[in-house]
Amino acid sequence: MTDALYALAQPRHLDLGCGATPRNPYGKAELYGIDIRAFAAEPAFVFRAANLALEPIPFPDNHFASVSAFDFLEHVPRALPSADGTAMRFPFLDLMSEVWRVLAPAGRFYALTPAYPHREAFQDPTHVNTITLRTHEYFCGERPYGVNYGFVGRFEARRAEWVVSRDAEVAGDFTWQQRLRRLRRRL
Question: Would you report the helix, strand and coil content of the chain in percent, each value rounded to 5?
Fold first, then answer.
């Protein structure tokens, strides 16, 4: 079975920083979520509480056909001192390595985040990681630059662009209305 067919056959999707309402942009049958806080009541999806700036994703290798991060990556610090203060850790790079680890071969990672220079990237005081239109390049290609700092993986960018929130609900093909809005913005 090819990698792409293997990924398509996987029924599981993981949403990072899911809160009480995880998203499932690829419409997978089994929905999983991770958030920093546990819920008082049992959610209607498979849930794990974890601080992903400090902990690995608590699922096995190659477990998910897709992973999403809606308004989450900007909350993961780029650098933190080690516990003894003698070295630096790179939680954002570690998290991207973890996403690569839990994705099935040819799996998809969908991220939507406020990006520089838009004010939404800066107005929330919990945004500690400024993302740009080109941040993904550190994690993509034959030898991504992020490997110099400990990243393990090799994503392929399918699409990287500015979007407005009403265009960001589904990661599949755009509707004709979304395509029309995009065309109007370009004119």
Answer: 25, 20, 50
Using DSSP's 3-state secondary structure scheme, residue 102 falls into helix
The domain ranges of the chain are: 3-186
- Identify the pLDDT of residue 170: 47
Residue 117 preceded by cis peptide, ω within 30: yes
d(CA 107, CA 105): 5
The answer to whether 45 and 33 have CB atoms below 8 angstroms apart is yes
User: Three-state SS string across 143-157, please?
Assistant: CCHHHHHCCCCCECC
Is residue 152 pLDDT above 90, yes or no?
A: yes
List CB contacts of 21: < 8 A, sequence separation 6 or more: none
Helix (H, G, I), strand (E, B) or coil at 132: coil
Q: Which of 27, 34, 24, 76 is nearest to 57 (CA)?
A: 34
Contact by Cβ (8 Å): 62, 105: yes
pLDDT digits (tens, 9 = 90+) for 68-93: 999 999 989 999 998 899 999 999 99
Q: Does residue 143 carry a pLDDT above 80?
A: yes
Confidence of residue 159 (pLDDT cuts 50, 70, 90): confident
Q: What is the pTM of this model?
A: 0.82
Class of domain 3-186: alpha beta
Q: Determine contact, residues 135/152, Cβ cutoff 8 Å.
A: no
